[in-house]
Amino acid sequence: MLSDANIKTIRNEVDKYWAEELRTNNKFFYDMARGKEGGHQLGDKVDQLSTGLICAKYPSLTGFQHKGGKISTRSMGDIWFKNDAGEWNPINVKTGLVGSEGQPNIVSLKRVMSSIIEHTIDAYYLLTVKFDIDVAKQKVSHNVYLTDILNWLSLPSVGSVVTFNSGPGQTMLKAKKFYDLLSKGFSPEKLDVRMKMELLMDLYLEGEENLIRARKNDRKKFEKTYNAFQSDRSPFFIDKHKQEKLEIHL
């Protein structure tokens, strides 16, 4: 895990960087955030600039996962940071826009659990740059957060900010609740690795049960549609009116 000092240092450096970046290039980021693909473009830019900054500031403490001699495009972390004990910690860089929180993917649940079982990680960090767009003033402001998301799996007073979809296998962030809590200065209890694994397993089993129920319901609906079609003994025909809605043309 990263120490509190590590977390504070990284967060403060990234926060300071974005304060200066928005001071000098505010219109550029305002226009990007307001664009049609604003969220994606902004996310890519924030990832690139934030990881570049951390690497430049701490070249001996940062790295990227490699495979076959090349930087892996499927790494758990956008960047990895070495703690005081010489252990690497994955950091996932995320971008948030006030009013467009949704439920973004975080990471594969099984991958996190497998990595803990293999003793290669004991935490999973989200470095989030949250932007607030002031349309009236045409300006963008920001906040930076860095936290071990595995400490957010069970919050007795408010409920978890992490959910799991067993279909694609991804954990997802309940972003609005997460950012609301962060903005109020909420800090979750630090969990040991055994408790993290227990909560991850609970999340996995719940997701599997939800997927089984959803597939059973989907099967019932489709079987009903199929049976209705097969029971109709009238001559089969192509519905040209429906074909027109397909908008088939050169």
Describe the structure.
This protein has 250 residues and is α+β, with helices and mostly antiparallel strands. It has a domain at 4-149 and 174-188. The chain contains six helices and ten strands, in the order ααββββββαββββααα. It has helices at residues 4-34, 38-57, 109-117, 175-183, 193-231, 240-244, and strands at residues 62-63, 66-67, 70-71, 79-82, 88-97, 105-108, 125-134, 139-148, 162-165, 170-173. Strands 1-4-5-7-8 form a five-stranded mixed β-sheet, sandwiched between helices. It has a three-stranded antiparallel β-sheet with strand order 6-10-9. A two-stranded antiparallel ribbon has the order 2-3. β9 (162-165) and β10 (170-173) form a beta hairpin. The mean pLDDT is 92.
Features:
single chain; 250 residues; alpha+beta; 6 helices
| DSSP helical segment count | 6
Average of the residue pLDDT scores: 92
**Which regions are unreliable across 5 or more consecutive residues at pLDDT < 50?**
none
Multimeric organization: single chain
Overall 3D geometry?
A: globular
Please give a quick description of this structure:
This protein is of the alpha+beta class. It has a domain of 161 residues.
Sequence-ordered SSE layout with sheet pairings:
Blueprint: H1 4-34, H2 38-57, E1 62-63, E2 66-67, E3 70-71, E4 79-82, E5 88-97, E6 105-108, H3 109-117, E7 125-134, E8 139-148, E9 162-165, E10 170-173, H4 175-183, H5 193-231, H6 240-244
Parallel strand pairs: 5-7
Antiparallel strand pairs: 1-4, 2-3, 4-5, 6-10, 7-8, 9-10
